[in-house]
Amino acid sequence: MRPLTEEETKAVFSKLANYIGKNLVHLVDRPEGEEHCFRLHKDRVYYLPTPLMKQAISIARPNLISLGTCFGRFSKSGKFKLAVTSLDYLGKYAKFKVWIKPNGELPFLYGNHVVKAHLGRITEDTPEHQGVVVYSMSDVPLGFGVTARSTVDTRKLDPTSIIVFHQADVGEYLRDEDTLF
Predict the structure, then answer these.
(1) How far is the CA of 41 from the CAs of 13, 34, 65, 92, 127, in angstroms?
(2) Over 70: is that where the pLDDT of 180 sits?
(3) CATH number for the domain formed by residue range(s) 96-174
(4) CATH: 1.10.3630.10, 3.30.70.1130, 3.60.10.10, 3.10.450.220. Which one for 2-89?
(5) Dihedral pair phi/psi, residue 97, rounded to 5°
(6) The pTM is what?
(7) pLDDT band at 162 (very low <50, low <70, confident <90, very high)
(8) What is the per-residue pLDDT for 14?
(9) Distance between CA atoms of 80 and 131, rounded to whole angstroms?
(10) HEC string for the chain
(11) Where is the PUA domain (predicted)?
(12) Which residues pair with 135 in a beta bridge?
C-alpha cells in the first residue's frame, strides 16, 4: 500500500471529475471532519479514512488483501477504470443523473446500454460524452455510464437510440464476482 504518484493522482481525479465535477473537493475534504485519502495496493485504488490507513501500515503487503472502498484499478497500459464499488460516492456527489423506468432496469443491470424508451428523466443541460450516474425511478443508484447525446439532442431521437453507454452496474457483483476484488 502506497500513496498515488502525481500521474496516478491526475488519472484518478480526471476520471472522477468526469462524473462528480467540482464535488471532487468533498471526497478529499470531508465535511464530517474525518480525513480520507487514496492509496494504491496491487493496481487498485482504495479510498479510506486516514486513521485506518495508519493502522494498516503495520500489516505486511502480501498479507493485506483489501482496505477501505475500492474506487477502481489501473490497467496494464496505465489507464484508470472506475469500479462499481465506487457507486456509493459517485451517487452521492454526482453532477449529472439519469433515471430509468422500471422496464429498463433489468436490461441495464444485465450490462446493456440505456435506450430512449427506458429513459425516465435526465438532468437538464447534460452535455454529450459526460459521465452520469444511472438511478431507478425510486432514486436507487444502479450504475454509471457516459451519455451518447446531450439533453437537447435526446428529445429528437427515436425510442431505440442509445442515450447512455453502459460503464458499470450493480449487476457486476454477480456477473464478475471472481474478478471484482
Answers:
(1) 17, 22, 9, 25, 34
(2) no
(3) 2.30.130.10
(4) 3.10.450.220
(5) -130, 155
(6) 0.87
(7) very high
(8) 94
(9) 14
(10) CEECCHHHHHHHHHHHHHHHHHHHHHHHCCCCCCCEEEEEECCEEEEEEHHHHHHHCCCCHHHCCCCCEEEEEECCCCCEEECHHHHHHHHHHCCCEEEECHHHHHHHHCCCCEEHHHEEEECCCCCCCCEEEEEECCCCEEEEEEECCCHHHHCCCCCCCEEEEEEEECCHHHHCCCCCC
(11) 96-171
(12) 99, 141
Pull the grid cell for residue 130. Answer: 459526460
Residue 117 CA to residue 148 CA, distance in Å, equals 14
Lookup: cell for 142? 444502479
List the domain boundaries for the chain: 2-89, 96-174
**pLDDT band at residue 178 using 50, 70 and 90 as cut-offs:** low
The x, y and z cell numbers of residue 30, run together, are 470531508
**The one-letter amino acid at 41:** H
**Cell for 35?**
480525513
Quick one: cell of 68?
A: 477501505
